[in-house]
Amino acid sequence: MDAHLDLLSSLSRKTGSRIVLVVMDGVGDIPVEELEGRTVLEAADTPHLDRLAARSALGLLDPVMPGVTPGSGPGHTALFGHEQTTHLVGRGVLEGLGIGFEFTDIDVAARFNFATLDAQGNVTDRRAGRIDSESATALCARLQEAIPSVGGAEVIVRPVKEHRGVVVFRAEGLGANLPDTDPQVTGVPPLAPHALDQASQATAAAAAEFVERAGELLRGEDRANTLLLRGFARYDPLPSFGDVFKLSAVAIAVYPMYRGLASLAGMQIVDAGSSLLDQVEALRGAWEGHDFFFLHVKKTDSHGEDGNWKAKLEVIEEVDRVLVPALLDMGPDVLVFTGDHSTPCALESHSWHPVPVLLSASTVRRHGAGGFGERACATGSLGRFRGKYLMPMMMGYAGKLLKFGA
What total of structural domains would you count in the chain? Predict the structure, then answer.
């Protein structure tokens, strides 16, 4: 562990208080012209969150540091208290863990998107129209049957959810130091797999052969006619919540990647169903015997990436209508609403903008804000801080940290 976690581990103590962390993925935004200069969060009808904000502490967090745009992995590991620059976890492993894949020490995993190429070989849709999970599962089965190995490496293909999948290359001596083949923009060809060090050259060759053969197999598909690879990685678990924070932690997430992140951090994964109501019931079912609950809401991010501010607003309003009253009824000692990064609808991507934070506890310095939004949080008593400091804040307000020093 690094010095930051060593200190927290030495101060953490087991108590009966409970913490709930709600992560509305990509909730942060920038002003939307159609909303008269308000952000989506500011414009949403959220009476429960607004009343809660008036008696809570507000602030803004930078998941990595000011100006740096985080991926979902670094954004969440920060919220779990880790220094992201030393605990960078590839999405291939996260997605695999999220679907229960058991890694060996000779595996290199990559997350892939089914995507769409035009006749010129340029990417026109990086998510293949967000094809449904049933269609993606059938395509993964075809890939697995047709490509059982490449370049001496066993190939394992698994569907994840919608347009996402995982490919695992299994062989001795494979390195994982490769950049993504996803160009992150449309109108250009996919990037070729290439190694960033000598140890990863065999992996790059295997990945290139796999993508080429997959493209041949998928050529007749209207939308999912290629694969974009992201997040090459080996399995390397994080220091566990139980060891560092003395917490019995539970993750309630619908999407596999976020279950994978939680699993990597040592949280128990429970069945979260497919809706917010399902997640509420899962939380109630896990309430006894646990003291930390991570609840993840995905669609705020998905709609932000699609540039659909109306749909993003509706998800935020559903969180307010369904989730907030249920959580307040359960009565956690510390309740936090935030995001892992911002996903402005105008940009249709993750961004560097700081993320709003609401922290409710009996001992906070109340803000008295008129609502929960970016501008209210910018003037809140929590100030602006790096994401890795949210975990000690929650622990402190829950009475779970001993005094430091004499």
Answer: 2
